[in-house]
Amino acid sequence: MAAPADTLGLLAEYALGTLSPEERLEVEAALAKEPALRAALAELEASMAMVTVSQGAPAHVWQQLEAAVSGGRRFSHLVPALALHFDISEPRARALAEALDDRSAWQPGPAPGLLLMPVEAGPKWAGFMSVVVRLEPGAQLPMHTHAAREQVLVLEGGYRDDQTGREFWRGEVEVREAGTSHSFTAVPGVACLCASVVKLAEDA
């Protein structure tokens, strides 16, 4: 395991999806333990998303960088986890990641600043509801009780559980069992995107 300072130096390549599988696992292990690294990654990704061709660097360098961080490509290192999460193939997971920036694919959610994208999950999740949730920075999902089990994979940004103060960031998974209650708020920065699988109450 690299020291946090060493891992910090790998964050840009992690965000671009250019690390080796071994390096990616190393960075993700460090992210799971270091809130400061997760915050640095969120800030870096927000900055990279706004990069435009500018002075200094050759045009082809900027073109490669923009291609790597635009659209669904910024989720490239999360495609295997997304495929596993929804029990779908990696090509389908990649297509889903590409669709996340298509505003027409989203539906209004149950609270301000909240949008939903239904997902057709694989046979493992038959009888479950699967969806990607988009929560704008600072928006809150009000207090609610889980009538059934929920599993969430954070794809971008992060959110804070308002009751415990615990934060969940890109690449992390949260599992909420039936009967638990909480509200949560998207942290500042980029919008929080979460892949969610919920067991329907009638099957609980």
Concise account of the structure shown:
This protein has 204 residues and is an alpha+beta fold. The protein is 33% helix and 26% strand.
Q: Determine the number of helices (DSSP H or I, runs of at least 4 residues).
A: 7
Mean pLDDT across every amino acid position: 79
Overall SS class: alpha+beta
- Determine the oligomeric state from the structure: single chain
Q: What is the helical fraction, as a range of percent?
A: 25-40%
User: So what's the overall shape?
Assistant: globular
Query: Which CATH C-level class of the largest domain is it?
Result: Mainly Beta
> How many domains, in number, for the residues?
2
Biggest beta sheet attributes: 6 strands, antiparallel
What Rg is obtained from the alpha carbons, in whole angstroms?
17 Å
Q: What is the CATH T-level topology of the largest domain?
A: Jelly Rolls
Mind telling me the CATH superfamily name of the largest domain? Jelly Rolls
Unreliable spans: 51-57, 65-69, 200-204
* Spatial gap, N to C terminus: 40 Å
Task: Tell me how many strands there are.
Answer: 10
Q: What is the percentage of strand-forming residues?
A: 25-35%
The largest sheet has its strands arranged as 1-2-3-10-5-8
